[in-house]
Structure formats: C-alpha cells, structure tokens
Amino acid sequence: MLSRxxxxxxxxxxxxxxxxxxxVIASLLLILGPQVQDRVVSHLSTNLENLGRGHLGxxxxxxxxxxEGYTFLLLPGLACLLALAELLWRSRRLIQAFALGHLGAxxxxxxxxxxxxxxGWLPISVAHANDVxxxxxxLAVLGTLTAAIPMRWRPAWVGGWVTTALVxxxxxxxxxxxxxxxxxxxxxxxxxxxxxxxxxxxxxxxxLAIGIGFGLLMLVGVSPHVAPIALPAGIAAAxxxxxxxxxxxxxxxxxxxxxxxxxx
Length: 264
Known about the structure:
76% helix, 0% strand, globular, transmembrane helix
C-alpha cells in the first residue's frame, strides 16, 4: 500500500516539489507581513529596471512568488495542471515546458516593452512595474497538452485557447495578458515535439477539467471585464475549427471515393 503510494507520488515529483516550495514561500511571506512581501516581489520582479541592472536571478526567482499574494488560491489548480502534464510527458519535459514559457514569454514581453518605451508608445513608469508569478510557465504547460488531445478535437482546442488569449491581450489593458498569449503559443509550438500514447483515464480527465478551469482563470483574471467577450469568442472559434475540420475530412473522403470509382 505504502510502496504503491510512494510510486504514484514519485511520478509527479516535480509537481510536488514546486507546489511545496510555493506553499512554503507564500506562508513565510504571509507571516512576515505585507511590507516584506512587497520588498520581495520588487526584488524578484522581472521588470525592465531589474533586468537592465543585470539581475538575471529574477528570471528564476519570479516563478516562486505572486504579486497579489494569490498563491494559495492558485495552487490547487496549478498542481492539477502540472501533475497531468508530468504524468503525460514525464518530469524532464514538464520542466522544459514550464521553463520555456516562463523565460521565453518574460524575455519577449520585456523586449517588446523596451521597444515601446523607446518609441514613446508607453511611459517610462512601465519599466518599474512588477512582473512576477507562475502564469507564463503554467500556460505554456497547458499549451503542450495539445499533443495529448485526440486529433479530431485538436483544432477546437487550439482555436479556442488561442482566440481567448488573443482577445484578452488585444482588448485588455495589462501587458501580462500579452505574455500569457505568448506563453500559450510557445507551449502549443513545443507540443509539436511531444508524442503521447497514453489513454485518457477518468482520473486524468478530472485533472484536465481542473487544468482548463485554471487556464481560463489565468487568461481572463488579468482583465476580468474582457471575459464576456473573450470566452464567447473562444467558444465560437472552437466550434468553427471543429466544423472546418469535419468539412475538410468529408471532402477528403469524398475525393478518395471519387478517385477509387474512376480507377475501378
């Protein structure tokens, strides 16, 4: 019994380690008070000010704190999403996906903000805005699940998520939403290198359902007022992608049947 439990926990060891670290750090910051928390967030932020000073350690440290102190609220959904990915892809690929999303989206957003400030499109104060959290890495992991989605549902999955992320990024007023769209896209692109022969058990479907809810919370949470537009747009895109795929499959089958008839 204990050996079986230990074996199951070992399969999601990265998820457990990261979740435990987040819980411990959040608890310590809660005990130390808001002033200490603000200083820690400011020190670990991957904003242009810190990156410009060569504080590259923020690229790692920023993944272990949240600016608003929402770690306890986000942790259950995050753990389910990461656990599912670790069961599907194993620990090494989970780390690869999370790191690509967190580092890649952070650096791309930073480069975009620097260019926008230099061109006068954004005020210099943006360079000092806090940018910490786990959302970039988590959304990249969500994107990699594309490889595990059955082929007939994959266009709907990609179309729905990408549309929702883009609508929030365009209609929202937070540059974090742009980072979310970038991270999700990086994860989807990375999924092209992943292969999954695992079956969708009820347990994994439950983790997927929670992961989807967590992903939606991440996307629309930065601009809640955009949710009434972004969510219907995502659903519409998913339905359109499903219809387009079915239409394409039907035409392909019809063409093959016609060729077979002519050959006969």
